[in-house]
Amino acid sequence: MGLADVHAHLTLPQNAAIIDELIANAEKAGVTTIITNAISAADNRAVSDLAERFALVKPAFGIHPVETVPVDRHSDSTGRDEQNSSFSVDAVLDWIRDNIEKGFAVGEIGLDGHWVPERLWEKQEQVFTALLDLALEAEKPVIIHSRKRERRTFEILAEKGIKRVIWHCFGGKLKLAKRIAERGHYLSIPANARRSKSFTAMLTSLPRELILFETDCPYLSPERGRNSQPADVALTRAYTAELWSASETEVEERLAENFTRLFGVEP
Ligand SMILES: [Zn+2]
Fold this sequence. Notes:
Blueprint: E1 3-8, H1 13-16, H2 19-28, E2 31-37, H3 41-53, E3 57-61, H4 89-99, E4 105-112, H5 121-138, E5 142-147, H6 150-160, E6 165-168, H7 174-182, E7 186-189, H8 197-205, E8 211-213, H9 233-244, H10 248-263
Parallel strand pairs: 1-2, 2-3, 3-4, 4-5, 5-6, 6-7, 7-8
């Protein structure tokens, strides 16, 4: 038994540069599983390679919803723009189809209405549903990113009959989070929970059997002035123990049970 970080980005440059340190810190903190989520074509390969180097790294293959359509997210993005014809979602889908058996989950995938303008939503949904079909066919759980499009994402998952789901960094209303939980989907809580009213509310109001921990590292840091890292799930365990009036061991056991129920293997 151990702790799992179900949503990390260890291949992003900030993390890749210090990977040995991050893995050592995670092991020291009792983290036994880090699900590293891919976001783009090149990243899928990098995630696959990293999982071969470190036993505790489990690969999730996918395409970040912002990467499925031609938008420029921010200055440090890939620099891709609408003129860049070399961008091919189909090639990424083919790669994922060919390698999906090596994958622990399909992620991160979903819908984003924050960075993606409405005129591209239909295209974004097409890629999302194609990825869901791949997950269904291969019987893999999915790890969902949804921003400003939570309801539509929920609808599509229901229409497709997708049951093994983790909602990563859920930013919608608590009422919808409860409906999501009623459907048996899991919600992963980031390491900045202590600083967040909504994640605190989720930890206290949602069924405990559907809670998992994540970091989204290097993002969503528990402390100002540094990046998050997988070891930070230990801080969420401590915070959750306070909220649940439980011991840290009890929290860890509960979370490990949840993980095992979803993935069919212990963390
Ligand atoms: Zn992410």
